[in-house]
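Long-time lurker. I teach an intro course on protein structure, and each term I like to show students one example going from raw sequence to a predicted 3D structure in token notation. This year I'd like something fresh instead of my usual example. Would anyone be willing to generate the tokens for the chain below so I can use it in lecture? Attribution to the forum is fine with me.
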Amino acid sequence: MTQWVGQAWESIHQELRHTIQRSFRKYGITVAIDGSEDQDINIGGLDNYRVDSQVMEDFNTTTDTSDTSDYERDESTTSSG
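-- Reply from a regular --
Happy to contribute to a lecture. Here you go:
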């Protein structure tokens, strides 16, 4: 079964590569997180969709963990006491 799924994905990926890439970009999955490519997001049914700059500022503020390693963050959330 897993071989069949793998073969199917490989076939789809080769045939529809550009469509897949375009769709991921259109729905904001692969655009830059810094907001510089937000103009590429075009979700059907959400005319004039824009990412609120305040939301992005809040996101950037709350997710800044550049001075802490992944291991340290994991340890701090799982330690008790």
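Some talking points for your students: The chain has a mean pLDDT of 75. The radius of gyration is 19 Å.
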